[in-house]
Design a protein that fits this description.
By secondary structure, the protein is an alpha/beta fold. It has a single domain, classed as 3-Layer(aba) Sandwich (Rossmann fold). The chain contains 8 helices and 7 strands. Strands 3-2-1-4-5-6-7 form a 7-stranded parallel sheet, with helices on both faces. The N and C termini lie far apart (62 Å).
Length: 278
C-alpha cells in the first residue's frame, strides 16, 4: 500500500492530497496562529492541547478548532501532557488512528518558567527538558517511522528562540532546553534524512509574557534593528515556508526583526525594569 508523496513540498495540489499536520500547543497564542495559517494553506490539523474538560484551555482549543473547520480543514483535538513520556509516545499513533496519515509535526508547545543560576535545580531543568526538548525528539522519531513505513516524506519544525544567538543568563532552564533543541534540530536533520526534514524557527519578542505590561511589551517589541519584532502571524508564515521548502533542513529561520543581531546582557523584561534585575 502506498501513500501519495506530497510532504516533500507540503503544498497540496488538490483536496485529495491535503497534508495533515500535528501542531502542539495549538489552542492559543503562537500555536493557534500557526494552525490557522496552515489551515488556510490547505492542511488538515491535529490540534494538540493540554487541558481537561471544563478547563479554560480546553475551551480555547474548541474555539480554535471551530475556526479551523470554518477554513475548510479537517480537525481533531488531542489532549496530552507532553511531559509524560508514555503520553508523548502515544500521540502520533492517536493522530494516525484519526487521520490515517501524518506529514508534518510543528513542535510549538513549550514550558516557560523563570529561574537563574541561583535558583536553578534539577526539578526545574527536568520540567523544561521534558516538554521543550525530549517531546520534540520523540515526536520527530515517531513521524519518521510513519513516513518511512509509507514511503513518503515529511517535515518537523521546532520553535526555538532568537536569544540563542546571543545568550544571556535569564530564564536559565528554559534557555538550556531550547539550546538543546537547537542542537537536536541539526542532529535529527542528519539522523532522519532523507525521509524527514527538520527545521528551526526562532521568534523574537512576540507576545507579552509573565508580568510584562502592554506598554512594556510595546517597548520591547521595538528593540530591534527594524523597529519591530515578530508577530504570531510572522512566525506562522515562517513555519509554512519551512514546510513548503523541500531543500531546507538543519537550518534555523530567525523571525525577530533582527533582534538576534543585538547582543543584550539581560532579557528585555529586565532591561525595561532594571529594579527587577537585582
Amino acid at each position: 500500500m502506498s501513500m501519495p508523496d506530497v510532504s516533500a513540498d507540503l503544498a497540496p495540489a488538490s483536496a485529495a492530497l491535503r497534508p495533515c499536520t500535528l501542531v502542539t500547543g495549538a489552542s492559543r497564542r503562537v500555536g493557534r496562529a500557526i494552525a490557522l495559517e496552515l489551515a488556510r494553506a490547505g492542511h488538515d490539523i491535529a490540534l494538540h492541547h493540554r487541558g481537561s474538560a471544563g478547563d479554560v484551555q480546553d475551551g480555547a482549543a474548541q474555539d480554535t478548532a471551530a475556526q479551523l473547520r470554518a477554513l475548510g480543514a479537517d480537525v481533531e483535538l488531542f489532549d496530552a501532557d507532553l511531559a509524560d513520556e508514555a503520553a508523548c509516545r502515544a500521540l502520533v499513533p492517536r493522530v494516525l488512528a484519526w487521520s490515517g496519515r501524518l506529514d508534518a509535526v510543528v513542535n510549538n508547545a513549550s514550558t516557560f518558567e523563570h529561574d537563574d543560576v541561583h535558583s536553578f535545580g534539577h526539578a526545574a531543568m527536568e520540567r523544561h527538558w521534558r516538554v521543550n526538548t525530549a517531546a520534540a525528539i520523540l515526536l520527530a522519531e515517531a513521524l519518521h517511522r510513519h513516513v518511512q513505513e509509507w514511503g513518503s516524506r515529511g517535515c518537523v519544525v521546532n520553535l526555538l528562540d532568537q536569544k540563542l544567538a546571543h545568550l544571556n543568563p535569564d530564564h536559565l532552564s528554559y534557555t538550556l532546553s531550547k539550546a538543546a533543541l537547537q542542537a537536536a534540530t541539526q542532529m535529527l536533520a542528519l539522523a532522519l534524512a532523507p525521509r524527514l526534514r527538520v527545521v528551526g524557527v526562532a521568534p523574537g519578542v512576540t507576545l507579552p509574557s509573565g508580568p510584562m505590561t502592554e506598554a512594556e511589551f510595546a517597548a520591547a517589541h521595538r528593540m530591534t534593528p527594524l523597529g519591530r519584532s515578530s508577530t504570531p502571524e510572522d512566525v506562522a508564515r515562517a513555519v509554512r515556508f519551512a514546510l513548503e521548502s523541500p531543500a531546507l533542513t538543519g537550518s534555523t529561520l530567525m523571525i525577530d526583526g533582527g533582534q538576534h543581531l543585538l547582543g543584550q546582557p539581560r532579557d528585555v523584561y529586565y532591561l525595561l525594569r532594571p529594579e527587577a534585575a537585582a
